[in-house]
Amino acid sequence: TNLVVGLTGGIGSGKTTVANIFAELGIELVDADIVAREVVAIGSLGLTKITQHFGADILNSDSTLNRAKLREHIFSKPEELEWLNALLHPIIRAEMLKQLDNTRSPYSILIAPLLFENGLDRLVDRTLLVDISPEQQRNRTKIRDSVTAEQIQKIIDSQASREEKLSKADDVIDNHGERSALRNKVVALHNNYLKLSNNT
Ligand code: ATP
């Protein structure tokens, strides 16, 4: 199995922007958010179990998972949230590992906004943080999304602090500068990861 780098960063930090540069360099990516959706897609074991547990009411008319209904079911019911996590976390992990195992690039990247918060750093060989200040997070998220300052702040507060992430990450990309400054930083990391992957 080849080297796996876990790419993380808070809301609006620039993970997707950085990941796109790695992809241009030929590196294959696995996205934790996409995997989390795939494991409850129509026909999945996850969705079958959820339907057995909560009843067919949990589905939309097109048989997809009704996420709003699911949120209602687990909201203020810790035992239901626990049940759901116990079901989905192992499935998500196994699926991420399977997809990473199927990559063919010299190393691969797992992109996960909650890499440290969800303990996914234990599944990767190295961690890479896209770092920006909370102020920049607020500015860039505000420009991108039509959400209120309060909603953005709630998400920032629900994620690990900048300091905690900085202390845990093996590598850090500073994304306070211009977009154009990112590419050289990513290329430098890419060359380092190529070296590391040759030595493993
Ligand atoms: P999320 O977790 O919220 O999906 P993300 O970490 O994937 O966010 P991006 O979507 O890559 O972050 O970046 C957030 C916004 O900031 C985007 O609109 C992106 O185009 C912009 N952006 C990224 N890097 C820079 C930069 N260096 N300068 C200006 N804008 C940037």
Write a brief caption for the model.
With 200 residues, this protein is α/β, with parallel strands linked by helices.
Strand order of the largest sheet: 2-3-1-4-5
Average pLDDT taken over every residue: 95
Q: What compounds sit in this structure? A: adenosine-5'-triphosphate
Report, as a whole number of angstroms, the end-to-end distance. Answer: 9 Å
Q: Which of globular, elongated, flat, extended, rod-shaped describes the shape?
A: globular
CATH superfamily of the largest domain: P-loop containing nucleotide triphosphate hydrolases
Describe the structure.
By secondary structure, the protein is an alpha/beta fold. It is globular and about 50 Å long. Strands 2-3-1-4-5 form a five-stranded parallel β-sheet, with helices on both faces. It has two domains: 1-27 and 105-200, Rossmann fold (3-Layer(aba) Sandwich); 33-104, no CATH class. It has nine helices and five strands. The structure holds adenosine-5'-triphosphate (ATP). The site of adenosine-5'-triphosphate has 16 residues, from α1 and α6.
